[in-house]
Structures are given as structure tokens and as C-alpha cells.
Design a protein that fits this description.
This protein has helices at residues 3-17, 21-27, 46-60, 78-87, 98-110, 142-145, 150-160, 182-191, 200-209, 221-237, 239-266; strands at residues 68-72, 90-95, 117-121, 133-139, 161-174, 212-219, 270-279. The longest helix is centred in the last third of the chain and has 28 residues, at 239-266. It has a domain at 3-27 and 61-220 and 268-278: Vaccinia Virus protein VP39 (Rossmann fold, 3-Layer(aba) Sandwich), CATH 3.40.50.150. The chain has a 7-stranded mixed beta sheet, with helices on both faces. α5 (98-110) links the parallel β2 (90-95) and β3 (117-121). Helices cover 47% and strands 18% of the residues. α7 crosses α9. It binds S-adenosylmethionine (SAM).
Length: 301
């Protein structure tokens, strides 16, 4: 990957995520999770649904005390912190947004978790080679990777896992008949300058080519539609403050992007899938969930 491409990716991420932590806090939940929530109650609220999503990811990964978790594209640190607090793992998160990394580091310190939880500003391609993890998550990251980079991305993750380790990929996909539209042009120009979506089957094929076994695939499309609707409601409820923080143009751009995303999920032109993968190896089968039953009990409090 050329230096020029890395610099362009860093600029693209800063364009979107460094807008202002205060702005994002106007419409995200208190844990600052910026991906699809999981509504155990279809009419439920955002706060509970985001906590339930973090817990669902931890359960799918079968996190256990003292395991190591790498959270690639960790945002404001929500999953890493949740996994340390509720599952006793040691977590390392990376983000390409300085605003997110600073926010997460301050939150980790204020919670007294610095010995077990760390978030750094780091390009995922620069995560030190040689370190292996028990579990890896990438939640809402594949959208930024670029389809031509999928082979390198999945091979890298595979190499960073211990044999038998689990990887959870949570991301947006295009439906099979997708074609570029004025909406995608708007999103690429004003919202996600490096955004790139693939179809589910294309993505699964690259995962298999990287020698992963696919253990579980779950569609959460309508959960993302509701998440976007709730983000829009919350942003509109704080319109004056949002305008003060980021100006009229960014406020309206984000309102349009979130609303059009809700419509696209409702119309199923885009989807959201969680895919659980396992690296073959000595421990194969040891960690792999054999049923989904463990996922549906009472979530961690
Ligand atoms: C949609 S956010 C999701 C954040 C978090 N996982 C969550 O669920 O709230 C995408 C994240 O991917 C990160 N990201 C995108 N490209 C990256 C790269 N090349 N290296 C590291 N992080 C990257 C962004 O900085 C951001 O934190």
C-alpha cells in the first residue's frame, strides 16, 4: 500500500470522524457506538440496543477472562471498554481518528482500566506484526477498507489470530443488483470519501480465500434502519447545538446522510451482516459456538 494511499485514507477518516466529538455525542448513545445497534425489543431505545449489540459481539466471540482482544477500527472505544469491564479480557483498539483515540484514552483512564485496555491512533496496516490475539473484532470497518484491499486485510487478520481464534466482522454490504446512484455519489463526495461496499457473497469468498472457516452469518439490516432513524431523531432534537458546533452545512449533510441510509436499509438496497469466522488450528472446535443458544440469555449488566 503506497504512502499516498495511506495519507488519503487518513484524510478521509479525519474528514468524517474528527468532525467533533461533541457533535457525535449529540446523537450517539452514551457509549458512543457508531454502528448498527441490536434491538432485542423491536421498539426499544438506542441506549439499551447499543449495550446489547456490544454484548452480542462479546458473546459471539466467546470472550473469556484474560483473553486478548484486538478491536480494529475501535471508534470511541465502546467495545474494548465493554469487553474489559464485563468479560475480563485485555483489549487493544486502534482507530485512524485522533479525536476518537484521545477521547477513548481519556475514558479508559477515568474508568481506571488503563492496565487492561488501550486505544491508539494507528492505521490498521501498521498494527505491530508478530503479536497474536485470541479474538479480533472489526465493527464498521470493512466499509473503509476498499474492495481491492480485502485479500490483504483478511490475510492480515488471519495472521494476527492464534490458531482456533475467532474473528467477528460486522459491516454494511450492497445488495446483489446494486448500481451507483446520485445518493452514493453524494455519500462519497461529502460524507465517506473512501467508502466502498461489496456484496455479501464477494466478501465471504475473500474470507474463505484467506483460509477462514465461516461459522455464522447474521443479517441485521432492519436493526440498522432503526438505529439510523433514532440517530436522526436525536440529531434533530439538538439542531441548534449541532449548528453551533459544526455549522449549518455539516449539520444538514449528516442529517441527509443518516436519513438516506435509513431509507436504503429499509428498502434493502444495502444490508448489514455480522460474520463470525475461525482460524483453523490446534484449538479448532474448542472455542467455536456449536449452537446459538448462548447468545440469547440475559446480557451482561
Ligand atoms: C463506523 S466507525 C466504527 C467504530 C466502532 N467500531 C463502533 O462500532 O462504534 C469506523 C472506524 O474504523 C476506523 N478506521 C477506518 N479505517 C481505518 C484504518 N485504516 N485503520 C484504523 N482504523 C480505521 C475509523 O477510525 C473508525 O474508528
Amino acid at each position: 500500500m503506497s504512502t499516498q494511499t495511506r495519507a488519503r485514507d487518513a484524510r478521509a477518516i479525519a474528514h468524517h470522524y474528527d468532525v467533533s466529538n461533541d457533535f457525535y455525542s449529540l446523537f450517539l448513545d452514551p457509549l458512543m457506538v457508531y454502528t448498527c445497534a441490536y434491538y432485542r425489543d423491536p421498539a426499544g431505545g438506542l441506549e439499551q440496543a447499543q449495550a446489547d449489540k456490544l454484548d452480542l459481539v462479546c458473546r459471539k466471540l466467546r470472550l473469556a477472562p484474560d483473553e486478548t482482544l484486538l478491536d480494529i477500527g475501535c471508534g470511541w472505544g465502546g467495545l474494548a471498554i465493554w469487553a474489559v469491564q464485563h468479560y475480563g479480557v485485555r483489549a487493544f483498539g486502534v482507530t485512524l481518528s485522533r479525536a476518537q483515540a484521545d477521547y477513548a484514552a481519556a475514558r479508559i483512564a477515568s474508568l481506571g482500566l488503563a492496565g487492561r485496555c488501550r486505544v491508539e491512533y494507528c492505521d490498521l496496516r501498521d498494527i505491530p506484526a508478530g503479536t497474536r490475539y485470541d479474538k479480533i473484532a472489526a465493527v464498521g470497518v470493512i466499509e473503509h477498507v476498499g474492495i481491492p484491499n480485502y485479500p490483504a486485510f483478511f490475510h492480515r487478520i488471519h495472521a494476527m489470530l492464534h490458531p482456533g481464534g475467532l474473528y467477528l466482522n460486522h459491516g454494511i454490504t450492497h445488495n446483489f443488483y446494486w448500481r451507483p446512484t446520485s445518493q452514493t455519489e453524494f455519500l462519497l463526495r461529502y460524507v465517506f470519501p473512501n467508502g466502498d461496499l461489496a456484496g455479501l457473497t464477494e466478501t465471504l469468498t475473500e474470507m474463505e480465500r484467506a483460509r477462514f472457516e465461516i461459522l455464522d452469518v447474521e443479517c441485521l439490516r432492519l436493526h440498522y434502519a432503526r438505529t439510523c432513524r433514532q440517530w436522526v431523531e436525536r440529531l434533530r432534537a439538538h439542531a441548534d447545538e449541532a449548528r453551533r458546533l459544526v455549522g449549518e452545512r455539516v449539520y444538514r449533510t449528516w442529517l441527509l446522510y443518516l436519513t438516506s441510509s435509513a431509507v436504503a436499509f429499509e428498502a434493502s438496497s444495502i444490508g448489514l451482516y455480522q460474520v463470525l469466522l475461525q482460524k483453523h488450528g490446534d484449538r479448532a472446535g474448542g472455542d467455536a459456538p456449536r449452537t446459538r443458544e448462548g447468545l440469547y440469555g440475559q446480557p451482561a449488566g
